[in-house]
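Running co-folding for flavin-adenine dinucleotide.
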Amino acid sequence: MKPAACEYVAARDLDHALQVLAQAGGDAKILAGGQSLMPMLNFRLLNPAILLDINRIAGLDRIIVKRDMVTIGPLVRHRTTATHPVIAKYFPILTKAMTHVAHHTIRNRGTFVGSLCHADPAAELPMMALLLNAEIEISSATGKRLVSARDFFLGPLVTVLEPQEMVTSVDLPFTSSSTGWGFEEFARRHGDYALAAVAVTLSRRRNQARHVRIAVMGVGETPLRMTAAEEVMDRNNLDALADVVEAIRRAVKPATDLHASAEYRRHLVGVLAGRAIAAAWGSAQ
Ligand SMILES: Cc1cc2nc3c(=O)[nH]c(=O)nc-3n(C[C@H](O)[C@H](O)[C@H](O)COP(=O)(O)OP(=O)(O)OC[C@H]3O[C@@H](n4cnc5c(N)ncnc54)[C@H](O)[C@@H]3O)c2cc1C
């Protein structure tokens, strides 16, 4: 299928893009990598009056290293995130997660920020933003606001973004270099959206886990932080693993769909969590 007719606008710069959004009366869609938007337009699930292409705006494709964080621009492609040495150094868990995102052709165009804005509950990057305590900068013609990843995702394909707003950057605060991590995912075929995935970071002091973060996806309407399970693991060691896994299985609310039953997903997320926590424990220094 082909998209319905709409006006195509290639933004010259950020101000131009924000003006177009402000004047469109809520009837414009931003085109980043187009890997999720174009199928939705082709299937006529979306029918905007204006397609706002941000790909020609200079400077949006950078990963910028600051004192205590990296900042990811709205045109940073999946391939760049997957291969960037700074990401590999400070966020090896993100480099690992990127290997599960789609296929090469999609990774060449798709963007980190586009994935967050699309907010697919079975996508890796919203979960990673949640795990890494990302701060999302949202701009409009009238100003800027910062939203934490915890508050950004409202439901399947739904975020706090207003129609006249654009995500202009995502900050990922550094974690300590001694942080251990584990990432586990199960998909039927490599590159498919996952049935479930779990990402864990923690540090170890005197044989106790500290700063425990556990995020899951595929088992709820948005990616989720497992705060109760984090508390069970905190100041504990792998002796607590069964209790942590149980806390995760209690907290998730998977749905039965074409791909798997709710019970299967609940069981699966526990298995993946056990492996991810053990890997994080083992790699923490
Ligand atoms: C076959 C296939 C398999 C895939 N498998 C996976 C997978 O396994 N894991 C995974 O995570 N993803 C997967 N994807 C999705 C892929 O990662 C997309 O690239 C990503 O979800 C969207 O990024 P994009 O840059 O292409 O955004 P686009 O498609 O351009 O946009 C997506 C949405 O975000 C909005 N948007 C984009 N940028 C902004 C911005 N700066 N501010 C506000 N709104 C914005 C758009 O208006 C649109 O609503 C797959 C896609 C396909 C086609």
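Result summary
The longest helix spans residues 262-283.
Residues 63-173 form a domain with the Uridine Diphospho-n-acetylenolpyruvylglucosamine Reductase; domain 3 fold (CATH 3.30.465.10).
Job closed.
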